[in-house]
Design goal:
339 residues, alpha+beta, Helix Hairpins, SH3 type barrels, seven-stranded antiparallel β-sheet, 17% helix, 29% strand, globular, Zn_ribbon_pln, Chaperone protein dnaJ 49
Amino acid sequence: MAIKVLRAFPTDHYKILHVEPFSHINAIKKQYKALALVLHPDKAGSPIPAAEDAFKRVADSFRFLSDRSRKRDYDTSRPAVETFWTACLTCRLLHEFDRRYIGYRLVCPNCRKSFRAVEVPSDGNGVEDSDFYDFDNDRTEKCFANGQIWAIYDDDDGMPRHYGLIDEVMSSSPFRVKMCWLDALVDGDESLLLWEKSGRHISFGRFKIGRKVEMDSVNLFSHIVESEKAAKELFRIYPKKGSVWALYGEMNYGREQRSYDIAVFLTSYSEKVEGYKTIFKRTQIGPHAVRWLEKDDIMLFSHQIPARKLAETDGLNLPGDCWELDPASLPADLLQIVR
């Protein structure tokens, strides 16, 4: 085991830890503990040649991948290499990986299920199509401009929880931009600090400019985010009236499989319309349709969902107050057609 660790290239952190590329932090922690029992000088049952050096390298890789921002940059900002497209057999999403991983078992960044990476055509659509509106038209290469803030898909479960400020559009074809990550400003708030340390994300509030990176995949971006500039390197991001958000369902913060409530901000909760994949309607009308949210409820919010309110003039014969939601920002269970 120690020799295998030391043979890995020092910056190939996944290989050093013997985990699949793009693994979730929980899998990384579990594997680190297993390796520590074998390699740590104080825990190993009998001396293993080169174990001390191997353990130091394992510990360094674990510290690196445990840093959420460094792991995020490591996964998304690798040097340009020859890549291929593959599809997760569970959630059907397409993913782009380094060609050296063809035939390997990888972890899907969206559903976190393991699958064998088989090359598929890149012109297919890995996300479920919406019922009417094509949300992909709002995130093509030509949509990007300097100074925009974009929501970026999380490698945790594929929902758009990260934010990035476009510093420079270097090229539209091929796509390449310089971007600064936006990091939540918690100002010593203990509950928010604990929330961040648990691996969760803060979806709105004040955000400061963080590390600058170069991005070459347009598929990582979800939608443009409305914001207010509070200072030179500080932005406010808050839900706007009529915007649609996913709220964490009750008692699921620590579950592997998350559930969500869908809310139209300052109006009501929503539920699926029968016979459609991406059409939602208000669950109630009147005073019971509104839920008041306090400052401490910030942690209920998972992510904003790009949405389009359907008008009666669309001639779709739908109930009143319906919205079509972007399927790329909905978990697979909410895309099932209700009969």
